[in-house]
Amino acid sequence: MDFNSLETPYYHYDLALLRRTLDEVKRCTKNNPEFHVHYAVKANFNPRILQTIAAAGLGADCVSGGEVSAAAAAGIPSEKIVFAGVGKSDSEIITALRTGISCFNVESRPELENISELAAKEGVTARVAFRINPNIDAHTHAKITTGLSENKFGLAPEDLLPAIRRAQELPSIEYAGLHFHIGSQIQDLKVYVTLCHYINNLLNELEAAGIATPSVNVGGGLGIDYVHPKENPIPPFEKYFNIFRHELRLPAGCQLHFELGRSIVGQCGTLIARTLYVKEGRSRKFVIVDAGFTDLIRPAMYGSHHFTENLTAATRPEATLQPYDVVGPICESSDVFSRDELLPPTLRGDLIAFRSAGAYGEAMASCYNCRPLPKSYFSE
Ligand SMILES: *Cc1c(COP(=O)(O)O)cnc(C)c1O
Questions:
Q1: Is 257 a pocket residue for ligand 1 (Cβ < 6 Å)?
Q2: Are 240 and 222 in contact (CB under 8 A)?
Q3: Strand partners for 310
Q4: Of 92, 338, 319, 132, whose CA–CA distance to 216 is shortest?
Q5: How far apart are alpha carbons 307 and 338 in whole angstroms?
Q6: Which long-range contacts (CB under 8 A, 24 or more apart) does 119-124 make?
Q7: CB–CB of 176/156 below 8 Å?
Q8: Distance 220 CA to ligand 1 centre (A)
Q9: Which of 61, 89, 133, 246 is most exposed, with the fewest beta carbons within 10 Å of its own?
Q10: How far does residue 322's CA lie from ligand 1's centre (Å)?
Q11: In whole angstroms, how far apart are CA 291 and each of 45, 334, 339, 364, 365?
Q12: CA distance linking residue 346 with residue 275, whole number of Å
C-alpha cells in the first residue's frame, strides 16, 4: 500500500506489532490458568483490531451495550465478556443479559436491584461482581484517575458487605466477586502493589465474614511509553503480571481477571496527517495539519503529547531542527498537538505522523465542525 497517496488524515495500524504485543501478554500469563485477560474495548473498537484481539483468545471488558455487541460481533465468546460502568441503562443491561455475558461489574446498590429485576424478567441469572473504590491514588492524570473516593466509580468499601449479602439473597443474581480499576496510563507500578495489599486485606475480611470470593478483577491501566515508542513498543507486561503473581494472596480456586486497554493497542496505531500550511506568526511558527482534535483528542483533553515525526522530510537531506507549534484546523484554541515541537524544516504537503495513537484515538473521534471521521488502514 502506498501510504503517501491516501487521503489524509487517517489512522495506520501495525497489526504485526499488535500481534507481537498479544503474544507477549499470552507468554506472560500462560503458566497461570487462573489468569484471564480481557481487552478494554473502549480503547479502540475498530473491527479489524477487535477481530485480531479475538483471534488471540482474549476476552472483552465493555462499558456500554454497544461495546458488548461489538465484542460479540468480533467473535469474542460471551463467556469472556464483562460489563462495567456507573450508568448502565435498562436496554444495555438487557443486551448484555441476552448476549449471555459472564459478569456485570456493579457499581451501586440501585444498579444491583435493577439488574436483578431485569434478569428475573428475562428468566436468567446475572453474575455480578462489585466494583470497589479503594481510595488509591494511581499517580496519573486527574482526568484518568478513577480509584479515589472523590471519583464517581465503585462502591465505598463499607458498603460492600451489605451489598454482597443482598446479592446472595436475590434469586436472579449470582455473586461473582470483586472488581477494581484505579486509573489509566499508570507508569508507577508500585501503585499495583498497593492495590494487591488492599485486596488481600479485603479478602481476609470477607473470609472472616464467611464469604467466599470466586473471582477478583484488578481492572487495567498499565501505561505505555509515549516518549520513546520506538525503543519500547511493547509495555512491561512481565513486570506487571509478576506483581499480581507475587503480591496477591488469592483463596484456592479464585480466578483473577485483568482488563487491559491502552497497553494492548496504544503503540500499534499512528495518526497520519498532511501539512496544509506553514505559517510564520509574529512570535511562533505554526505547522497547520489537516488532522485536529476531532481525530485525536488526547492532547486537547489530557494535555498529552504524541511523539511527532515529519515523514516526508525524512526523505530529504538532513537539516537543522526547528521549533514549530503543530496545530489542527478546528476552530478552538485547544486544537494544538504540541508547542515548540522540534521538526526538520517543514513544507506544505509534508506528511506528519503522531505515534502511539492506537488507544483512545480513533475511538474518541468526533464529527465536530462537520468533519468526516478518520479512515483506517492496516499493515500486516
Ligand atoms: C477504561 C477501563 C479499563 C482499561 O483501562 P486502560 O488504561 O486502557 O488499560 C479497564 N477497566 C475499566 C472498568 C475501564 O473503565
A1: no
A2: yes
A3: 352
A4: 132
A5: 9
A6: 119/172, 119/173, 120/171, 120/172, 122/94, 122/97, 122/98, 124/97, 124/100, 124/172
A7: no
A8: 5
A9: 246
A10: 37
A11: 20, 13, 16, 14, 11
A12: 8
Report the alpha-carbon distance of residue 356 to residue 267 in Å, rounded.
4
163 lines ligand 1 (CB under 6 A): no
373 DSSP assignment: P
d(CA 40, CA 238): 19
Q: Which amino acid is at 293?
A: F
78-84's contacts with Cβ under 8 Å and 24+ in sequence apart are 78/102, 80/36, 80/38, 81/38, 82/38, 82/129, 82/217, 82/257, 82/259, 84/131, 84/179, 84/181, 84/259
pLDDT tens per residue across span 237-283:
999 999 999 999 999 999 999 999 999 999 999 999 999 999 998 88
Atom of ligand 1 nearest to the CA of 131: 13
The total of other beta-carbon atoms located within 10 Å of residue 349's CB is 9
Decide: pTM greater than 0.70.
yes
Q: What is the pLDDT of residue 137?
A: 85
In the chain, the amino acid numbered 112 is L
* DSSP label at residue 157: G
For residues 230-246, one letter each, b for 16 or more C-beta atoms within 10 angstroms of the residue's C-beta and e for the rest, the string is eeebbbbbeebbebbee
Does residue 112's CB lie within 6 angstroms of at least one atom of ligand 1?
no
